[in-house]
Specification:
alpha+beta; Muramoyl-pentapeptide Carboxypeptidase, domain 2; five-stranded mixed β-sheet
Length: about 230
Amino acid sequence: MLDIIPPQKLIPMDVFCGAEPIAIDVVYARPEHPENIFGIAAYDPKARMILHRDLARVVILAARLLQERHDWILILKDGLRPVEAQERLMNTDIVRKNPQWLKEPRLLSSPGLGAHPRGMAIDVSVEDVDMGTVFDAMVPESARGYKGFSPDILENRKKLESAFTDAGEQCGTPIYALPSEWWDFRIAADIVKRFEPILDADLPPALKVCTQATPDAKWEEQFADLAKSIVMSL
C-alpha cells in the first residue's frame, strides 16, 4: 500500500518570494501564456505554486547557489500537478496531434503517474538567461544531451543542473534531472513511487490548485512556520 502525502507536507512557494532569489510564473494557470503549449487553463487562474516540503528545501538551496555562483534568479514554472490537471492536459488537441509524446520515454505522464502529481517535481527557467529553448518546448533541442547549441548555452544548462544536483546532495534528497527536459528536476523515482498521487478534490480549500482556493489564516500561519523551518535547516 502506498503512503498518502498529508497536506501539512505541502507548501506554496510564494511564501519565499522577496526573501529568496526566486520568481514564480504559473504557466498552466493561463491559457494565453506564451509558454502554455496546451492552450488551456489546467489550474485555477490564481493557483499557487505548491511543492512537497522536501523538494521545496532543495529548490530554495538551488536558487541560493545559482545566485551566489552566477547572480541568477530562478523562475518556478510548474510544481504540484494534481491528477485532475493531468487529465485536462491529456485531453487537449495538441496531445491528440502528438501521440508520440505518450510513447516511451514519455514526454507527458498519464494521470496519476510521475512526480508532478506528488509535488515532487519542479519545472524551472532562469531570468534573462539563454537555455536554448523555452520551458515546455517539446523538441529534440530540449533534451539535456543535445549538443547543437553554442558553448555558452550548454554551459548555462550545466550550471543549472549542477546547482540542483549539489542542492539535493546537501539536503540529503536525491534529485533526478529528467533527460528529455532541461527544465525538469524531481525527487528520485524510488522515493516518488512510495506515495499516492494527489487529487485536487482531496486537498484542503487553502491548497486547491485546479479549483479556486479559499484563503485561511490558520493555513497561512502553518505555511509561514514551515517556510521558517526550511530556511533554518539550510
